[in-house]
Amino acid sequence: MRSQRAWSLFLIALIWLSSLSPVIHADEGMWPFNNVPKAEIKRRYGFEVTDAWLRKVQLASVRFNNGGSGSFVSPDGLVLTNHHIASDTLAKLSTPERDLVKQGFYARTRAEELRAPDLELNVLVDIEDVTDRVNAAVKPGMSPAEANAARRAAIAAIEKESLEKTGLRSDVVTLYQGGQYNLYRYKRYTDVRLVFAPEFQIAFFGGDPDNFTYPRYCLDMALFRVYENGQPAHVENYLKWSPAGARDGELVFVSGHPGSTQRLNTVAHLEYLRDFGLPLLIRWLEVTRAALLEYSRKGEEQARRAQEDLFGVENSLKALRGQLEGLKDPKIIARKREAEAALRAFVAADARRQREYGDAWDAIARARASLASYERERRFLEGGWGFNSRLFDIARTLVRLAEENEKPDAERLPEYTTARRESLELQLYSPAPIYDDFEQIKLAASLRFMRDELGAANPVVQKVLAGKTPEERAAELVSGTKLKDVAYRKQLAAGGSRAIEESKDPMIELARAVDAEARAVRKRYEDEVVGVEREAYAKIARALFEKEGTKIYPDATFTLRLSYGAVRGYMENGKFIPPFTFFAGLYERAAQHGNKTPYQLPPRWSERKAALNLRTPFNFVSTNDIIGGNSGSPVINRNAELVGLIFDGNIQSLVGNFVYDDTQNRAIAVDVRGMIEALRKIYGAEELVQELLR
């Protein structure tokens, strides 16, 4: 559902797109592990979720730092996720002579496993409610901007204290958009090695035409292994492979890390996204897509280099266009208005509630109305839309690292605090390849788009272009920088502010030149939008708690959540769509399209068809509530056995960013029986099968 590049684009887009639906319908909900609706699950499905069951599933679940999920599936550190989550690593490990994305990969021995250059996996160890401590930092009379700064300082202190005390990655997570703050502690794995990935053609069979559709026939799986001290990590909690798979109507759970939803947003917030935020984002993605296609047409090697970015952009465009169409649906906005009016009436019915919560909706409306006047500048300067280059990202990180290092931890930008430093440096010093010509075409396109959107007379645009065309400036910047050299990056970082200030590297000079303006527009956004909305949404959350109790769940935050549902088909255009697809359907669909791209089967799939049991289930759908970030999540049964692997949602699920409706919204998974059949009979990976099934 989301490639690494797609997710990075979603983070850029959705971290600031942070809908009001307090009444839970059917199998709705992405539930934190410390607030799982055990009674409702037992009432609906007759299954008692125990604390021991939850603990096992929690510790078997894995978060990928590139925006996906996974799970331990053997005691020797084997981790299952999607091919499209692995594809970023596959691309970085590929060469012109060995394209792992196209050809696939299988390490028959552990000595052949390939180490990922910059992959970090996190396992959630525990959760602690720190709401009171964060809120205690806010003193009476503080403005929203001052209160936001105080909360941020408190969060930095909590994270640093936890890291020093436990050695675990420590993240304070904002829930209910300010209603609660929880401290999540993670065990980090940074020695992560590739074990298996199929060919792109079968992992993404049907390509963009079939993306977000069903029926599907995709082997969207990959396997990694985590190491500690040079040896495969021994894990006690892992998911055993179900020999029987899932059945129609069976209760199943998804344990994963949904990235971002906007279900608690006010109507004014959603209208801003519909009328301004999403259209602007879609235009930027369209410009980026055009540049990637232009580069891809230059040759086979250029197409290989651009494939991961292009896949991510096209995936994001399809998803965001679907979300925009959903927000344009009068029925959805009417549903939101009705829910919001009911909550506001509940608040207005009591003088205390009205005094404490009543102004929240208008405050958000004012903040969003003013944002449109400077959102372009924020996106292009602070969001990096105007500087679409990995080299610029490195330069900005180095420039800010030098400055932030000189501040107390509580005053730093959150991404530069002590608690986040190891993860930041893993990315900053990644040895992944960078290609000059690819960087030039992306940077030129983004500079051109910034010039066209902000205007050629804009002072920042003039400073950035320095009298040159976007193409000339991009070529000058990329050819002149030395930031591809990891040793040079480390040298600059070690030299601190003086080294940065004295550097003549053109990319460092550019990052320095725009940093003041970028920081200023970021601060304005944090003061006028984030600070205001933290307070306002916290009030709305408290009103919801008073009205609904704990039967509401927070919006997704790329933290571990549990959803429950059932394997179930659905009606579409008057036709029943069965829940399962089978290997036979894969070959029928390929034949219907003449076995041509994107329905072309990899050669070994054609050659070894006779060895397969074509009645083997391949993909299936369930009513589980998922969103981007859930890619790679395990689908498990009551026994905490693996029955499937989430990789997508159907087209009706796209509006799930804002609302959930189980009549057609479906999560799509690879069936465990299909994975074993393919590993054995297509790839001859019997050693791997034995590890999974033992």
The helical percent reads 40-55%
Strand content: 15-25%
According to DSSP, the number of beta strands is 22
What is the first-to-last residue Cα distance?
30 Å
Could you tell me the radius of gyration in angstroms? 25 Å
Mean pLDDT figure: 95
Low-confidence stretches: 1-24
Largest sheet report: 11 strands, antiparallel
Structural class, from helix and strand content?
A: alpha+beta
**How many individual helices?**
26
Anisotropy-based shape = globular
Protein name: Dipeptidyl-peptidase
Signal peptide: 1-26
Keywords: Aminopeptidase, Hydrolase, Protease, Serine protease, Signal
Family: Belongs to the peptidase S46 family.
Explained architecture:
By secondary structure, this protein is α+β, with helices and mostly antiparallel strands. The chain has a domain at 267-271 and 320-547. Strand 16 (570-572) and strand 17 form a beta hairpin. The longest helix is centred in the C-terminal third of the chain and has 43 residues, at 506-548. Its EC number is 3.4.14.-. It is an enzyme of class 3 (hydrolase). Keywords: Aminopeptidase, Hydrolase, Protease, Serine protease, Signal.
